[in-house]
Amino acid sequence: MTSHKELAELAIQAKSKSIATYSNFHVGAALQTEDGKVILGANIENASYGLTMCAERTAVFSALLDGERKFSAIAIAGDSDDYLPPCGACRQILMEFCGKDLDVIMINLKGETKVLKMSELLPHSFNEEFLK
Ligand code: THU
Q: Is the pTM of this model over 0.70?
């Protein structure tokens, strides 16, 4: 199993895959499955800005397409001095597909990490139970 430190390193490396043509803000993500695989993501921007996809969601969607369904942690690294948290849209996706117990490892430019559970980042979330 990849340690939080190793997962953070992979997220930092994944920043190099980012296509941040407009913001120049590069983000990388490394998503760990419960059985130890790691799927990388990076943000991909578009001239129609609203179509931009965040690093976290590229990682989750790529993992889902690979058939993965159970996740234990995600590391997120960006060009920010402070620990980079997932945006609101990504929190919704992470909660639904990775669950409240997911460890979210946020990284700053020094490579230091801060870890929160998804349940701390998105309390009182909307979910499929409301649709029944
Ligand atoms: N971005 C991410 O990829 N993840 C986040 O958690 C925050 C924002 C991207 C989206 C956009 O390409 C750039 O960062 C600036 O908002």
A: yes
How many angstroms separate the Cα of 52 from the Cα of each of 26, 43, 46, 48, 64?
A: 12, 7, 5, 8, 19
List residues near ligand 1 (CB under 6 A).
20, 23, 25, 27, 43, 45, 52, 54-56, 76, 86-87, 90
What pLDDT, in 10s, does the model give residues 79-106? Answer: 999 999 999 999 999 999 999 999 999 9
Q: Which CATH superfamily is domain 4-119 in?
A: Cytidine Deaminase, domain 2 (3.40.140.10)
Structural domain spans, the chain: 4-119
Catalytic annotation, pick one of 56, 68, 96, 112 = 56
Rounded distance from Cα 81 to ligand 1 centre (Å): 14
